[in-house]
């Protein structure tokens, strides 16, 4: 089949069963491999939904500049979408995030502002400073801000991911879906699509920044998660439970995922799988936990994650 546009290559990613790292007697763990999207991230779904939603409403004009602040994957995905659709793009990011992500944004033609971090750590004030840069660009360039933390169009993109999971697990009872929270869009969008078909929706976060479980943020290195606030998209009732997980344990799991399961992913994906395995040990072998590998490990090779 020949696709009319590379944008049609977004989605329809595989769902695989983990076989070697899930303890005996636990529920089966299924992982949606989002590294199969064009930029290697599930954020392609969100970026396309946000841009096309703005086009439908007429709030994004042809040729208008787009702007966003981002930890990396959203920026890479927006750069990809805007390149295909012909929109100039300004992105605000930080040296706290992997250099591969920053280079990907520039490879697709985005203008990039890099805000310095506190010793490479992701802290709540970092996002405040990044947002200030967005305000400056909006005023100077009359740019359209996609506003990923508040943009409900993102939920439409992630609902498709949820519907894919349902189609791929037809005939299988789903007991738990779990995922780490960054903007909250993926967890909420998937939950909207699978609610009523799954018993529990569990939000995950690093224990070093336990905003959902303890009410405060903190520094961490799990890119794409835990901004130090409760994201607006994560509305009351959108999930059933929140759990905080140890980031060092997730970072160690990255290696087992690649070497034992062949799942090549980053820190947030490992956080998702760690949460899924912990939940699976509380269930029976006849039950099922589903989570998402958010992106590909190719985005993390320059750092210390795979050393």
From TrEMBL:
Domain Tryptophan synthase beta chain-like PALP intervals: 7-294
Names of required cofactors: pyridoxal 5'-phosphate
UniProt keyword list: Pyridoxal phosphate
InterPro entries referenced in this protein's UniProt entry, alphabetically: Cys_Synth/Cystath_Beta-Synth, TrpB-like_PALP, TrpB-like_PALP_sf
Name of the protein this chain belongs to: Cysteine synthase A
Lineage: Bacteria, Bacillati, Actinomycetota, Actinomycetes, Propionibacteriales
């Amino acid at each position: 089949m020949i696709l009319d546009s590379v944008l049609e290559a977004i989605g329809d990613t595989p769902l695989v069963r983990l076989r070697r790292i899930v303890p005996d007697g636990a529920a089966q763990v299924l992982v949606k491999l989002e590294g199969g999207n064009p930029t290697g991230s599930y954020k392609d779904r969100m970026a396309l939904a946000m841009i096309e939603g703005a086009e439908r409403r007429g709030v994004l004009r042809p040729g208008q500049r787009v702007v966003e602040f981002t930890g990396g994957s959203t920026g890479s995905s927006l750069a990809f979408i805007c390149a295909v659709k012909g929109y100039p793009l300004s992105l605000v990011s930080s040296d706290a995030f992997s250099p591969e992500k920053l280079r990907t944004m520039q490879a697709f033609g985005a203008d990039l502002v890099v805000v310095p971090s506190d010793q490479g750590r992701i802290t709540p004030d970092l996002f405040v400073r990044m947002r200030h840069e967005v305000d400056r660009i909006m005023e100077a360039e009359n740019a359209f801000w996609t506003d990923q933390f508040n943009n409900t169009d993102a939920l439409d993109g992630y609902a498709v991911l949820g519907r894919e999971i349902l189609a791929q697990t037809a005939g299988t009872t789903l007991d738990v879906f779990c995922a780490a929270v960054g903007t909250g869009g993926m967890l909420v969008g998937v939950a909207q699509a699978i609610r009523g078909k799954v018993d529990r929706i569990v939000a995950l976060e690093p224990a070093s920044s336990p905003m959902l479980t303890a009410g405060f943020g903190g520094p961490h290195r799990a890119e794409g998660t835990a901004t130090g606030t409760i994201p607006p998209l994560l509305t009351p009732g959108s999930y059933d439970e929140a759990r905080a997980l140890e980031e060092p344990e997730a970072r160690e799991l990255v290696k087992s995922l690649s070497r034992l399961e062949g799942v090549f992913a980053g820190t947030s994906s490992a956080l998702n799988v760690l949460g899924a395995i912990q939940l699976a040990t509380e269930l029976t072998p006849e039950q099922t936990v589903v989570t998402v590998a958010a992106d590909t490990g190719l985005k993390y090779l320059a750092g210390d994650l795979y050393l």
